[in-house]
Amino acid sequence: IAAAGGVAVPIFPCPGSSSDVLPHLDGVILSGGDDPDTTRFGEPIHPAANLVAPDRQVFELELLERLEQAHPDLPVLGICLGMQMMGLHAGGRLDQHLPDHLSTADQHRNGATHAVRGDRFEGVVHSHHVQALDDPGRLEVVATAPDGVIEAVEAKERRYMIGVQWHPERTEDPITGEGVFASFLAACRGGSPA
Question: Can 80 be counted among the known catalytic residues?
Fold first, then answer.
């Protein structure tokens, strides 16, 4: 964010405080992290899952709910886990362990690079995940990997709410790397996001 000309303000998980925090922000980034606890969404947890801290999951879901109810114009960017949380909140489902059934799962792990293509993004990305949205719920898929893995989603009814499965902060491609942050900051400043 700083490299793109913005000011990042870290917010630590504090369940119950989302209504106090959001009025002071120009936008929200839900960053990467460990795996969601899917029992909250009616799915058992995969044995290989490494769960995100429970207070973080509760807080981020509260943020997403509050954003939907009271702040529909506040820009939101979800990165990796952040995109997964957006999808789960929107009624989607998670493929909790790509290696169980996807022969190309290694192309998504350990900093591998691969192409993405879709309505919103086209380029090469830095990838580090074993989980991915299997169903985006109310969100629209706007980019996929060549093997069909959902790589980017968007809430079209909002001014700016985009989730990317890759890590733009580690991606060298100008469109799928720094361009993701430039678009988000343009929306935060009230301009037209690219």
Answer: yes
Q: Which one-letter amino acid corresponds to residue 139? A: L
Retrieve residue 105's tokens: 């799962």
* DSSP state string for 109-173: STTEEEEEESSS-EEEEEE--S-EEEE-TTSEEEEE-TT--EEEEE-TTSSSEEEESS-GGG--S
pLDDT in tens, 58-70: 999 999 999 999 9
pTM score over 0.85: yes
Task: Name the phi and psi angles at 172, rounded to 5.
Answer: -85, -25
* DSSP assignment string, 173-189: STTTTHHHHHHHHHHHT
Contact 94, 131 (CB under 8 A): yes
Of 60, 71, 80, 154, the active-site residue reads: 80
Residue of 71, 89, 129, 167 marked catalytic: 167
pLDDT tens digit string along 31-59? Answer: 999 999 999 999 999 999 999 999 999 99
